[in-house]
Amino acid sequence: MKKINWGIIGLGNIAQSFSEGFFGLENSKLLAVSSSNDSKLKYFKNRYEISENYIFKNYEDLLKCNDVDIVYIALPNNLHYEWVDKCIEKNKKILVEKPAFLKLDHAEVIKEKILNKNLFFTEGYMYRYNPQIRKSLEIIKSNELGDVISMESSFCKNILTKKKFFFFEKNKKIDTNNRLFSKELGGGCILDLGGYPTSFSLLIASMIDGVNYKKFKLKNVKKEINFTGVDIDAEAELCFDDSFTSKIKSSFKNSLGSYTIIYCEKGNLLINSSWTGKTEVIKIINGKKELIKNKYEKNIYSYEINEISKNILEGKNEPFYPAVTIEETIVNTNILESWLNA
């Protein structure tokens, strides 16, 4: 079977988790990696059996490699725009880690360039490929719960405190060099976590007849900024076309988790651990709960890699539904930028 050859630039934690997804796939191969860090290159070479010919210390050299079909950009947020642009120059297909861009005008520039070249592009919200989310969309489309009324969605994890004894907690020391707490590197909970509930809200809004998902407003915005200048707790009401509202929340300081509730006319849909795909969907009608189990056999990134490779093998220039298209990236970038600046 023909395989799509992948290259990765930037070998941080997310790149390592992503790379585990190649094991067991028949249509994809991790061919090349690039980093300025020798120890990371050595680790990836050994762990993923990458040939010495495809180990690059310079990102540009990987982009010049004709054997690489698609590049996964796993660099810090502030570098995404620059390297997406460089990939386009080299006619490389692109998967860029979320958030794709920090500014709306950057997203619009890239849209024009990829359309002009007919290049494949998508943003790395891996939850869109999970069986759990796809089953949830099927339930909504079936209309067994009636019309969607509203929703709430969160991605919150406490990375600021640690438990000491019993119920006592102690504040962790913040590393100001960590990208999560650097405004210049695109840190903060909105950009790191908030894009999940905003993009999921956008997806649900796009399914509702009569709703223009490109028209949105943010209401009741609340944010907490820490001493490094980044947001560590944020919430808002995201209103689409004045007719559909989603309550969104992201946080580095509490442990609310990553649940989503979709409220419909005849009942609700509860998705626990919305972004990992490892739990059941709970359908609630007239107070009765029904657990809907999903077949989950792979690394969370395997679904994403497999589907994107399938898209490319079939000659597609944009990903299959419900993956993120460039149009969605533009709207979601606009939402995130508006939330940050509100």
Walkthrough of the structure:
The structure is a single chain. This protein is an alpha/beta fold. It folds into two domains: 4-124, 3-Layer(aba) Sandwich (Rossmann fold); 128-341, Dihydrodipicolinate Reductase, domain 2 (2-Layer Sandwich). It contains nine helices and 16 strands. The chain has an eight-stranded mixed beta sheet with strand order 10-11-12-7-13-14-15-16, with helices on one face. A hairpin with a 2-residue loop joins strand 15 and strand 16. Helix 4 (80-89) runs parallel beside helix 5, helix 5 (104-117) runs antiparallel to helix 9 and helix 7 (189-206) packs across helix 9 (326-341). The protein is globular and about 60 Å long. The protein starts with a strand and ends with a helix.
List the helices and strands and how they pair.
Blueprint: E1 4-9, H1 13-19, E2 28-34, H2 38-47, E3 55-56, H3 59-64, E4 70-73, H4 80-89, E5 93-97, H5 104-117, E6 121-124, H6 131-142, E7 148-156, E8 161-163, E9 169-171, H7 189-206, E10 216-225, E11 231-240, E12 244-251, E13 260-264, E14 267-271, E15 281-285, E16 288-292, H8 300-313, H9 326-341
Parallel strand pairs: 1-2, 1-4, 2-3, 4-5, 5-6, 7-12
Antiparallel strand pairs: 7-13, 8-9, 10-11, 11-12, 13-14, 14-15, 15-16
Give structural attributes:
Rossmann fold; Dihydrodipicolinate Reductase, domain 2; 2 domains; 8-stranded mixed sheet; alpha/beta; 6-stranded parallel sheet; globular; 342 residues
Q: How are strands sequenced across the largest beta sheet? A: 10-11-12-7-13-14-15-16
Total number of helical segments? 9
CATH topology name of the largest domain, in short, is: Dihydrodipicolinate Reductase, domain 2
- Helicity level, as a percent range? 25-40%
Q: For the record, what CATH class of the largest domain applies?
A: Alpha Beta
Overall number of structural domains:
2
Rg on CA atoms, Å: 20 Å
Instruction: Briefly note the structural class of the backbone.
Output: alpha/beta
The number of E-state strands comes to: 16
